[in-house]
Design brief:
This protein has 8 helices and 8 strands, in the order E-H-E-H-E-E-H-E-H-E-H-E-E-H-H-H. With about 200 residues, the chain is α/β, with parallel strands linked by helices. Strands 1-6-5-2-4 form a 5-stranded parallel beta sheet. Helix 6 packs across helix 8. The longest helix is centred in the C-terminal third of the chain and has 21 residues.
């Protein structure tokens, strides 16, 4: 069904518009995802920053294209931004940067220009590694609680609180530790760092 607020377009169509200067591209993924790999034309504005930061962007009569990993966050960004700029034509890359790479289009990675970009060595962005680790830890604590060790429930709650604090403050000690893990260093042979950037204001 067609959405009146924006249009989903293919990666090749987006590439043509960007190459000819007809559009600007906004990458709404998290900063560490952007640092790991991004489209050369893209400006990084994480989804949660779109309401505040997009008001500072002047499309200058150009189309505005949003892009994420697979398309869902890009669609959300279109819905958020449309009320702020009703006259601006908005587009979302269907399939996100994943579809862009599948179309054979280049991306910039931590190690330079490539097509099948990776994150910090292992190919999984740091923020997703954090999610997986915390998820496993909470599941283990809950399982411990059901085994009769009630402290497990308390520890699961503590893990949830720490995750909330990390999201609220932008500082995540676990992410910092994961960046130095061996599997996150092995793929970075160019000397480029793979650090987490703070959300852009």
């Amino acid at each position: 069904m067609t959405n009146p607020n924006f249009e989903n377009i293919s990666a090749t169509q987006a590439h043509e518009w960007l190459k000819t200067g007809q559009a600007i591209l906004i990458d709404v993924r998290e900063p560490d995802e952007f640092k790991a790999e991004h489209i050369a034309y893209a400006t990084s504005i994480p989804l949660q920053s779109v309401p505040q930061t997009m008001s500072l962007i002047d499309p200058a009569g150009k189309k505005v294209i949003f892009q994420c990993l697979k398309g869902r966050r890009g669609e959300s960004a279109c819905e958020i931004f449309k009320p702020q700029s009703p006259a601006t034509p908005l587009y979302n890359i269907a399939g996100g940067i994943t579809a862009w790479k599948e179309a054979g289009l280049p991306v910039i990675t931590a190690g330079g220009v490539g097509n099948a970009g990776a994150s910090c060595g292992c190919g999984v962005p740091i923020f997703r590694q954090v999610q997986m680790v915390v998820g496993l830890v909470i599941a283990a604590f809950v399982a411990l609680g059901y085994m009769g060790f009630t402290i497990g429930f308390a520890l699961a709650g503590l893990a949830g609180i720490l995750l909330f604090i990390a999201g609220a403050t932008g500082f995540c000690a676990l992410a910092m530790a994961l960046m130095h893990a061996p599997w996150n260093k092995s793929g970075n042979k160019s000397g480029a760092s793979c650090s987490i950037s703070p959300p852009q204001k």
